[in-house]
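Side project, low priority. Logging it here so it doesn't get lost.
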Amino acid sequence: MDDRDRDNVIKGMELCLTPYDRREVNDIDACPHTDCPYFRVYNMGDCIRALCNDALAILKAYEPRVMELNEISEHEPMWLEQRGFPVLPTICQMIEYGEMNYVVVVMVNRSICLPVESYGISWRCWTKRPTDEQRKAVTWND
């Protein structure tokens, strides 16, 4: 979802939450917010459903999730989880060293190199800080 879609969701939500006097609207089922981006595309009930679906997609995008290995160089900062250790805020960069690929993990007081082939087995990165429940819900590769 791009910024324009996000702006449309925000505008639609603001308009849906704006109170109005139904007596001023000729049709009892009509929406008075004709400038709503969803009003122009959907029928009355469908516009609210579409708006809710889009809003839910935006909210889900902000939930912490385990990243794919190829996302690591593109996403900063992130949260490193090593199996059996607490989650730490980090910045990671993929490097090649001979025939081996490593991820350099930069933390506040140190840096470490982690082998790419152990991603998901002994370490993984999250887009945002996960709760303990979220960490436990996502299984490790073995």
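Brief comment: Residues 3-61 form one domain.
Revisit when time allows.
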